[in-house]
Design brief:
globular, single chain, 27 helices, four-stranded parallel beta sheet
Length: about 600
């Protein structure tokens, strides 16, 4: 097992490079920006489909109004995503621009939307727009329009192919003229592509892309295809790389397109048979978060004897139910721990096989809505199948199966921790008998260190000081929050992959600021959505799963004079649990940077 991990470690740099690819990031961030539209629209489509199940029939006009809201939100999501993806890619591209030049992200957003219309939308003989590809069916056109637009702008601006105005002309007006040439060139490129494809195949570009990629989508929804997808996602996460960011952008169009297709089949009285949908991954393959960890904290609490695992179980059981499993991943630790590799990658694979079998046998409908990934799995699956009881049956079976898969490995790991904790307790008892003082936190740190340095040397080498050093640091933090005060307000932005983990530290900072009367204002966000709001903050803290983006973000924070801090696994968990430690962490990093003065407390 250690040999497998060593082989994966050899390619860790490649995997991190893939996850940091600006085009994959742009796809992820483009969808992230559009999620409010997607989630909000789902409310209305559910109202028109759920209420009749309980005998409530809406008036025809009200039902039509609900459908109109859905059609103009989710029904246009391809159009919206073309703009948000272009904006996200522009922000990443600007970090690579030289000579003080930059690309106007508002202009690229509009140009990409124009490009999307040219590539995806057809018209009737009377000139009316055809609605076929405005929504998820046009997602691939959205990505193409975004990528081509930004690269045309980069080509023009890096070569100074712009209209220059006299320096007396206001900056806003000058910028408009500078964007005319790249905007015009990108529009002409799309017009040319559209004309060529229609002359060749007599279909919009979106239809051509769908035809070319149809074999891939078909293969992705087979048992081997889905097993591969939900093997790769936890495998990347096991290496400390956010797996969904690497894998899901490739299948994003299929995930959302199949969801809409399932809904249309259901509304037409047919069986929704697609298994490869967005929420199927969230509530089946990633039940409780990547690695299908919903049941793991419960197993820790009920069956493990180690103090460490029981404590981690208690601390993580509620977050994991809502798919925020970083406290578990970095607290146990699961990441790069040989004891967890097999169940962590195997449980999701088994889950999707069982879930797809349920759908293929028509025991359960395919998921037809896009709900928040943070819904507890059983609730999310029940809603997504339009309240079908067999979804709850499936979730119950998955929890039992996952428990069976994880249990042998957990027991083996627990036995090593129990032995190490007994050894530490014996050493402490001997020291106490000899009259030696035991430093605060050493017992806990020793047990945690043993978890990675004793039976799992590979974990120790990669986990760095995630457990041992971070725990000692957290336990020995000076109580500066009680004897020092910040001289001015400090705004802190915490970033993680999806927004759930960052919320935990932001809440701890908010609680600590109130308790110790420190002028600290904290907010949480997802990495990739920070470009527009970054200038509003004095410090940015990266959660462990996005620390690989440190160098990418540092270029932006350095320009703005913002302090950037990357955290490690258990260090981050310790900060989220203790508001005082969180406040001290911010103050210490500001002092080290000279970014904020402190004054003695009254």
């Amino acid at each position: 097992m250690n040999w497998i991990i060593k082989q994966l470690q050899k390619h860790q740099a490649l995997f991190e490079k893939i996850s940091r690819n600006i085009y994959l990031q742009a796809i992820k961030d483009g969808f992230l920006a559009a999620m409010p539209i997607i989630l909000f629209s789902s409310i209305f489509i559910m109202l028109t489909n759920v209420l009749p199940l309980v005998g409530v029939h809406l008036p025809a006009d009200l039902n039509a109004w609900f459908n109109k809201i859905y059609n103009y939100t989710m029904g246009f999501v391809g159009f919206y995503v073309s703009g948000t993806t272009a904006k996200a890619l522009t922000n990443s591209m600007n970090a690579k621009m030289k000579g003080g030049r930059f690309i106007n992200n508002t202009s690229t957003m509009m140009a990409a939307m124009v490009g999307f219309m040219l590539l995806a939308i057809g018209t009737t003989s009377k000139g009316n727009y055809l609605p076929s590809y405005f929504g998820t069916e046009g997602i691939l056109s959205a990505f193409v329009s975004a990528f081509v637009t930004v690269n045309v702008y980069r080509f023009c601006i890096s070569r100074d192919l712009t209209i220059k105005m006299p320096k007396e002309v206001p900056g806003v007006i000058s910028q408009n003229f500078r964007d005319i040439i790249p905007f015009g060139m990108s529009t002409l490129v799309f017009a040319g592509i559209d004309a060529g494809v229609r002359a060749w195949e007599h279909v919009p570009f979106s239809a051509l892309i769908s035809t070319l990629f149809a074999p891939f989508f078909k293969g992705a929804e087979t048992y081997p295809g889905m097993m591969l997808i939900w093997f790769l996602i936890p495998m990347f996460w096991f290496l400390g790389i956010h797996g969904p960011s690497v894998v899901k952008p490739v299948i994003e169009s299929a995930l959302f397109g199949n969801t809409v297709s399932n809904l249309n089949l259901f509304k037409a009285g047919k069986f929704p048979y697609h298994a490869l949908t967005e929420n199927f991954g969230n509530f089946v393959g990633e039940l409780g978060g990547t690695g299908a960890t919903f049941i793991v904290p419960i197993l820790f609490i009920l069956f493990m004897k180690s103090k460490q695992l029981k404590a981690i179980g208690v601390a993580s059981v509620v977050p994991v139910m809502f798919a925020v499993n970083e406290p578990l991943l970095f607290g146990a630790p699961v990441i790069l721990n040989p004891y967890f590799f097999v169940p962590f990658v195997l449980a999701p694979v088994v889950n999707v096989v069982i879930g797809k079998f349920f759908i293929d046998m028509q025991w359960m409908r395919g998921f037809m809505y896009v709900n928040s990934w943070a819904l507890p799995g059983p609730i999310g699956a029940f809603i997504d199948t339009n309240f079908q009881w067999t979804a709850l049956l499936l979730e119950g079976i998955l929890l039992v199966v996952d428990a069976v898969i994880y249990m042998p490995f957990l027991k083996a790991y627990d036995a090593t921790l129990v032995a190490q904790e007994a050894k530490v307790d014996a050493e402490d008892a001997a020291k106490e008998a000899a009259g030696e003082a035991i430093p605060a936190g050493v017992a806990v740190a020793g047990a945690a260190a043993g978890a990675v340095t004793g039976p799992a040397p590979v974990t120790a080498s990669v986990a760095d000081d995630n457990v041992a050093t971070a725990t000692v640091t957290a336990d020995n933090t000076d109580d500066k929050a009680t004897d020092q005060k910040l001289a001015h307000e400090v705004k802190v932005l915490v970033l993680c992959a999806g927004g759930g983990t960052s919320e935990q530290l932001a809440n701890a900072l908010t609680d600590g600021a109130k308790k110790y009367h420190e002028p600290i204002v904290a907010a949480a966000g997802a990495y990739g959505s920070q470009a527009d709001i970054l200038p509003n903050y004095d410090m940015v803290i990266l959660a462990p799963q996005v620390r690989t983006y440190y160098e990418d973000l540092k270029a932006d924070t350095d320009k703005l004079g913002i302090k950037l801090v990357a955290t490690k696994g258990q260090q981050y968990i310790a900060l989220t649990r203790d508001p005082e430690k969180a406040i001290n962490f911010v103050m210490e990093n500001l002092e080290d940077d000279g970014a904020a003065a402190t004054t003695p407390a009254n």
